[in-house]
Amino acid sequence: MGGAPYSFEIEIPRRYFDVGLSASSGQMFRWKQTANSEWVGANGKHWFRVRVLDGREAYRVESSGPPTVFQSLFRLDWDAADVTETLTRLGPELEPYLQAMPGLRLTRSGDAVETFFSFLCSANNHISRITGMVNHLAAYGPRLEVVDVIDLHRFPRVATLAKVEEAELREKGFGYRAATITQIARELESRGGEAYLRSLGAMPYERAQIELLGFKGIGRKLADCIALFGLDHTEAVPIDTHIWQAATRLYFPHWQGTALTDRKYEEASAFIRNRFGRLAGWAQQALFYENVVNWRTRK
DNA sequence: ATTTGACCTGGGCGT
DNA sequence: GACTACAGGTCAAAT
């Protein structure tokens, strides 16, 4: 396609920022690696194309947005060396997990609506199918650009999604989530749509959590994912099957192999949150993705 | 307060 | 190649 509106370099060591790892670790679902190993993706109203500069600790980024958008998305305003050092001081048990995932960063979505609907797709599902579903939803938004044959769309607004029929999503393979997604889209619109969602980012984590739990179809786990990845509540600790495995291994050995109940969810999540504070979400991401990568061989 | 069963679909792995 | 288990869970009903 024609020249990108913005083209800039980001200079940072790979151990502090691995763009592919950060983009494909289950925090966002609209990034792809191209044949020539560039990373191309979209978030909210922006698209990005990222390539590693030969022999240098730097990236060349083309984007619809200025550097600040990219920097915010990958949370480059947080110093990874500092975060890692603080995390290992607060929890030495984290060190092997952080070392196993060098360059993995906690991201910060620029679009709460996209994150909200992305994680509605994630319940009892696996990353590859979530990816397909999120990209189906994204196709309801206007096309931004085509980069290396990859169709990049602006993620649709709430009003658009609220008009989608359940049957339509069923046909696209959404399964039973077709019903919850269309219902929740309408509920979200009636609560004020995007403005309401954004307001959850401005209120304390605990209150945002309660608001999100008011949607039928959003439980603790999804509420925490939305809070963490979409509303910048970085102290949120979603407990999914992977974090549950890690948490029982590290902190609650007497619960290993047991089912996750409401009470245990609350205790495990609060424990990690109290241990790492506003860095808890970053810790969670390292524990999560290390377990995703290694869980098959571990058991 | 915990446990159980139902729920769409499609990679992936072992038989 | 069919089978089966399971995946970034949630809800309602039955212990």
TrEMBL record:
One Pfam short name: OGG_N
Reaction(s) this enzyme catalyzes, per UniProt: 2'-deoxyribonucleotide-(2'-deoxyribose 5'-phosphate)-2'-deoxyribonucleotide-DNA = a 3'-end 2'-deoxyribonucleotide-(2,3-dehydro-2,3-deoxyribose 5'-phosphate)-DNA + a 5'-end 5'-phospho-2'-deoxyribonucleoside-DNA + H(+)
Gene Ontology BP terms: base-excision repair, AP site formation; nucleotide-excision repair
A molecular function (GO) term: damaged DNA binding
Domain of life: Bacteria
EC number: 4.2.99.18
Keywords linked to the UniProt accession: DNA damage, DNA repair, Glycosidase, Hydrolase, Lyase, Multifunctional enzyme
Xref: Gene3D superfamilies: 3.30.310.40, Helix-hairpin-Helix base-excision DNA repair enzymes (C-terminal), Hypothetical protein, domain 2
HhH-GPD domain: residues covered: 121-292
EC category: lyase
Family statement drawn from the similarity comment of this UniProt entry: Belongs to the type-1 OGG1 family.
Protein name from the UniProt record: DNA-(apurinic or apyrimidinic site) lyase
Organism name: Fimbriimonas ginsengisoli Gsoil 348
Lineage: Bacteria, Bacillati, Armatimonadota, Fimbriimonadia, Fimbriimonadales
